User: Which sequence fits this backbone?
């Protein structure tokens, strides 16, 4: 709410940090904070939280999908692996309804991401506001077969 609706980023960051001080290994808190930091352009710190989230046991599939999106948007060296897992999860009907990935899409566009239009559509599919078939026109979506 603070991040997406009020855009009170300072207060949102305080709450993320408070959540992590209560449980430094909570995968959801780690992943959400990573997405927040990456979306603000704090690549080094956001990547560290993302990597910590990725190694937590028993990650829910919806969280795995969100983490893959952050990898696609911000870590080009992980593109192929993250895209393959994203495709697998989406094909298996995993979604994260209502999850707002727009800050990460905007940051990727500001960083001249070569697939920023694709990321915008992918974010809609993940949030369950667009069908997976909307990704078919993008060459990058069709480069990896399951």
Assistant:
């Amino acid at each position: 709410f603070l991040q997406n609706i009020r855009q009170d980023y300072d207060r949102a960051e305080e709450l993320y940090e408070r959540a992590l001080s209560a449980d430094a290994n909570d995968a959801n808190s780690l992943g959400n904070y990573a997405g927040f930091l990456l979306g603000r352009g704090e690549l080094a710190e956001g990547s560290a939280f993302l990597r910590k989230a990725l190694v937590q046991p028993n990650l829910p599939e919806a969280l795995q999908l969100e983490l893959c999106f952050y990898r696609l948007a911000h870590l080009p060296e992980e593109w192929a692996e993250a895209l393959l897992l994203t495709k697998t999860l989406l094909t298996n009907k995993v979604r994260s309804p209502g999850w707002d990935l727009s800050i990460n899409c905007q940051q990727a566009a500001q960083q001249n991401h070569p697939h920023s239009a694709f990321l915008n559509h992918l974010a809609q599919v993940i949030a369950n506001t667009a069908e997976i078939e909307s990704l078919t026109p993008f060459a990058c979506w069709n480069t990896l077969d399951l």
About this structure: The radius of gyration is 14 Å. DSSP finds seven helices and no strands in the chain.
